[in-house]
Amino acid sequence: MKRHFSMLRDFQLADWFTLANAFCGTGVIFAVMRFVQEGHRGDLLLGMALIPLAFVFDALDGHVARWRKASSTLGRELNSLADVISFGVAPASLGYACGMRGGWDWLVLSYFVCCGVSRLARYNVTAEGIAGEADKVPYFEGTPIPTSLLLVILLAVAASSGHIGDTLWWGQWQLGPWQFHPLVLLFAVSGSLMISKTLRIPKP
Predict the structure, then answer these.
(1) How much is the pLDDT for 124?
(2) Which keywords are on file for this protein (predicted)?
(3) Which of 84, 108, 181, 204, CA to CA, is 20 to 30 A from 172?
(4) Domains of the chain (ranges plus CATH)?
(5) Are 65 and 14 in contact (CB under 8 A)?
(6) pTM, two decimal places
(7) How far apart are the C-alpha atoms of 126 and 84, rounded to whole Å?
(8) Phi, psi (deg, nearest 5) at residue 116
């Protein structure tokens, strides 16, 4: 007879670090929604602070899994789903909160998230083949999605100096029916680097 919450009992220690990563990413989204609704900059900065914390949990789950020799397919899939939230959807929502709210901005931010999803899906499918007999992936194809932390740091500097909303760096353009903020192109570049097949980064 299967017991209630049996899946939670089957989680390894590393999986709980992964869930903490997802928890932080979800917290970012809630903080952004409250900022957009109420306009308190503290909520925005709180959301930005949760991304580095998610990054720490993301780094720790891999170390814990190797330390306990408890890597699993479930853990890998769980990690990818958590990363989509914390380093895909959450940074995009922060970009929106900082002022990238034009129609063209929406398209670029959505492209960024889709690139992150595609990159993680490709990694999950190809990781075992790349690892070979060493059972360790020697390199990343494309930049890892946690590199979006760099975008968050940039947005945090902008927010701390008051350059968000109407005063967002690089201004805004009116292109046809929609507004476009040139700063959003950094998200486009980040997303494109994630899905690159020719860019190979040695994995530590």
Answers:
(1) 86
(2) Lipid biosynthesis, Lipid metabolism, Membrane, Phospholipid biosynthesis, Phospholipid metabolism, Transferase, Transmembrane, Transmembrane helix
(3) 84
(4) 6-202 (1.20.120.1760)
(5) yes
(6) 0.90
(7) 18
(8) -65, -45
